[in-house]
Amino acid sequence: MSITRLLPAILLAILVSPLFAQQQQQRQRRLPDGVISHRNLVYATVDDDRPMKLDLYQQEKATGKEPLVVWIHGGGWRNGSKLNVNPHMLKLVTEGYAVASIDYRLGGIQAHPNHIHDCNAAVRWLKAHAQEYGYSVEKVGVAGSSAGGHLALLVGVGSDVPDLQGKVGEHLDQSSRVDAIVDFYGPSDLYALGQAKHRGPEVGLTQAFGKTASPVHFLDANDPPVLIFQGDTDRTVVPEQSTLIDAKYKELGLTSTLHMLKGAGHGGRAFSSPRVYEQIKAFLDQHLKSQTQSDAGKVLNQLETQTSASITQPVETSTINAPSQSDIRHLHGLIWMAGTGRLLPADAPKQLYENQLARFKNNLKNNPHLDGVSFTGGWKDIEPIKGAYTFERLDGFINAARDAKMPYKLVIMSGSKTPDDVFEQGAKFISTNVVNKYRGDLGQAVKVPLPWDSVFQDRYWQFVETVAKRYASDPLLYGVTVTVANYMSSETHLPRSDADVKQWEAAAPDFRERIEQCWKEAIDRFAILYPQQQITLELAGALPGMDTHLVNVVKHGIEEHPGHFVIQNDQLNGREDNMRIFSYRTIMEYGDQVYHGFQTVAGWAYERSSKRQGSMQRTADHFNQAKGRYLEVWYGDGANVQTCAKLKSLVSFAK
User: Fold this and answer.
1) Among residues 407, 414, 385, which one has the least CA distance to residue 481?
2) CATH assignment of 325-650, given 2.60.120.10, 3.20.20.80, 3.30.1360.70, 3.40.190.10?
3) Where are the domains positioned within the chain?
């Protein structure tokens, strides 16, 4: 089936909504104690030998009797990955389940039926390999959220529909039938959804297509029980989508339980509450663990009675494993940018590195005005080729900071610092040239990866997780910079010339929305990987027409990670009215809601950079006006005791 035009506006809303951010918040969550994972198991190959993968989570001491639950991520059918595993699913593993989180082909709803073919192939593969990995497929559950909820419903009700089964994978002798469905706010009737949002006919959506891709049109009396969670204020997948399939289920005499969460939108913290988990577990215990059906049914009935089906009672909004604001460390005061970026590559002269490290140690010892340091490096400087990490030089500086008991911030850049082998693997990119006249590599050709590209995403988040495992537990690590969609620095800058914008448009007409979502996702993931450090977004103008998108990213960070999320202006200067600068204006508007700091454009230590920076007094006035909490200064200034002393006499660090 080939679909060329379908619900682009709804797809976009699903992609950039809080629901997707909530899912992305769970990416690569640290595993609970006693849980192990089998990563990147290939369940099928498609499209010229492209491997489709899943991750399998089990108890370390599994008995082989644990029922299997298959998790399908959301993301508007266009984004996300198997790394988006819901925390409720991981908790289920600790209580006697095996959970598989699967990838499927993306590309928007127009990729239908590719994604449902992949999902069903994954179920078949998991059934065929149950004995090998040690879990039970006597009863199997499927769960998903948003687009993943839609696919979970299709898996559940479409096992007897040949057009939904496809021919993907090697285990066509296996059935894809499942025994229970958990649906978080998934669309059930795409045509009705388009009409409800007044977008159906005008984007070419037909009722005929709606029937081929909508779960509600495949119901029959043999379908498995379903548990549905829906927010009553959801404007992306409207509540009627859940009430519709719930009603159709009951018309057929099937088992459906709908929990309408009062005040909840399209995802968010309400869906992470302990009570929601209890309802999921009781439901799955009843339908997948046959030996405990009676007891599980009693628990489920009791929960439904207590919550009045959650329709009129708000659900608790505590978030699993969310750190309290008092547990999060923040930078405060004068922060020295230690100039490590050019020293980390393996081909940087060893003597230069050793000399700089010696000067660094000496300054920490003799400069009493420093309150912290910032270490910067590029991804390819630390992982020049896949899996080959070179942490030694970065560790040298970090160990020196530890010896001096100096708090530090970690900034690892992607963008032009992406390893060459990522592109060799097939990651798509923008090709541009360095245009910053203050850089020594002016005019050099560089590649900047499309931040939503799946090859880039897979490699980058593996790298970020590796770095987090190495440093996140260090009590002197006070902050990290969120990076994913970058150019030559850790700021939100991107290639923005007319020629560059044409490349972005050719890559994806909705590139601004995709970049916005990548930033939201990155904030969520860094928040998980660094639960005790400030996670900093270094603001700068990204691309023409993207200011509103970046403000949306800031709002997301403030709302989803209060006290954890920090914004930073890297363009503080004393040569012009800083209110002309987008990042400064944004801090002035939202500064009373979010912890914030600044970085100077340049320094006063050298004549050329001092002209860029302008007056120290005016710089301090801008900082004080915005009530900054910390100020990052360039290497030469931080290495100069007199400059640091004068700055500290002029600025007032807000409490």
Assistant:
1) 414
2) 3.20.20.80
3) 8-310, 325-650
Are 182 and 141 a contacting pair, CB within 8 Å? yes
Partners of 429 in beta bridges: 449
DSSP strand E in 167-247: where? 180-184, 226-231
pLDDT digits (tens, 9 = 90+) for 509-559: 999 999 998 998 899 889 888 989 999 999 998 889 999 999 999 998 888
Distances (CA, A) of 513 to 434, 463, 489: 25, 25, 21
Q: How many helices (H) and strands (E) does the chain have?
A: 25, 18
Question: Cα separation of 540 and 549, whole Å?
Answer: 12
Q: What is the CATH number of domain 8-310?
A: 3.40.50.1820
What's the rounded Cα separation, in Å, for the pair 100 and 68? 7
CA 456/CA 614 separation, integer angstroms: 39
Closest CA to 215 of 142, 317, 300, 316: 142
Mode of pairing for the β-strands spanning 136-145 and 180-184: parallel
Structure tokens at 183: 């649906």
Q: Indicate if 325-650 has the same CATH topology as 8-310.
A: no
How far is residue 180 from each of residues 157, 246, 279, 280, 282, measured CA to CA in Å? 10, 14, 13, 11, 12
- Assign 508 to helix, strand or coil: coil
Q: Is the dihedral of CA 456, 507, 437, 575 positive or negative?
A: negative
pLDDT tens for 415-447 read: 999 999 999 999 999 999 877 666 666 678 889
Separation CA 27–CA 481 (nearest Å): 18
**What's CA 652's distance to the chain center, in Å?**
35
